[in-house]
Write a structure and sequence with these properties.
about 90 residues, mainly alpha, two-stranded antiparallel ribbon, about 10% strand
């Protein structure tokens, strides 16, 4: 009798350990699907490219609207102005 009881306990322990694994895999699959759909729906006219000129790097194309960005060197209220990117 004791041997049959141990087998039931072992099965219960394995199934109890399997539930968090299945939940973790299901949530990972859901998050992956959500990320794929989000990226797929973010349509841009042209893909962005970084182009290096003599003294600076410029982002060309993509979904960034340059008119909505602050001008270079414009201080934020109470903020610090950082220098340009220098490789």
């Amino acid at each position: 009798m004791a041997r049959g009881n141990d087998a039931r306990r072992a099965r219960a322990t394995r199934s109890a350990g399997l539930v968090p694994l299945v939940v973790g895999l299901a949530s990972a699959a859901a998050l992956t699907g959500a990320a794929y759909i989000t990226v797929d729906n973010a349509a841009c006219g042209t893909p962005a490219q970084y182009i290096r000129h003599d003294s600076h790097v410029e982002l060309v194309g993509g979904c960034v609207d340059g008119s909505k960005l602050p001008a270079t060197g414009t201080p934020k209220p109470g903020g610090v102005v950082h220098g340009n990117y220098n490789p």
